[in-house]
Design brief:
alpha+beta, Trna Endonuclease, Chain: A, domain 1, 5-stranded mixed sheet, 3-stranded antiparallel sheet, 1 helix, 8 strands, globular
């Protein structure tokens, strides 16, 4: 099964959990060590480590296409914005095109707090 074939989920929470597992698989395949935290209290989903350096990663996914741009919402529950003190990296999975877009820091993307990638 191609990853983009699995896009329908009962809840956004389920879709987010699936995206986290896909990210873990891809990151480990790239040679990173990945730690999945327990619970939902931290603002990041996973920590990745390579050569002794740890990065806190918030995993997002999208299938929303707006004016030729895939838009990934980079905010938490209740539209709360993340801060640089809470996480180091966004990993956005663009489901329809089966592509990951990574963003370090909190100033990337089209139109402020959203990360985007041009559609095919």
């Amino acid at each position: 099964m191609r990853l983009r074939d699995r896009t329908e989920f009962a809840t956004y929470k389920r879709r987010g959990e699936w995206a986290e597992l896909v990210f873990i698989t891809v990151a480990q395949g790239m040679g990173f060590n990945v730690a999945k935290r327990c619970g939902d209290s931290a603002p990041y989903d996973v920590a990745v480590e390579q050569d002794g350096r740890f990065m806190r990663v918030q995993v997002k996914c999208t299938g929303v296409l707006v004016e030729g741009c895939y838009v990934c919402q980079l905010h938490g529950f209740g539209n709360r914005l993340y801060t640089a003190e809470e996480l180091d990296y966004f990993a956005c999975y663009i489901v329809p095109v089966d592509v990951w877009s990574g963003h370090a820091g909190l100033r990337n993307g089209c139109g402020g707090a959203d990360a985007a990638s041009r559609g095919a």
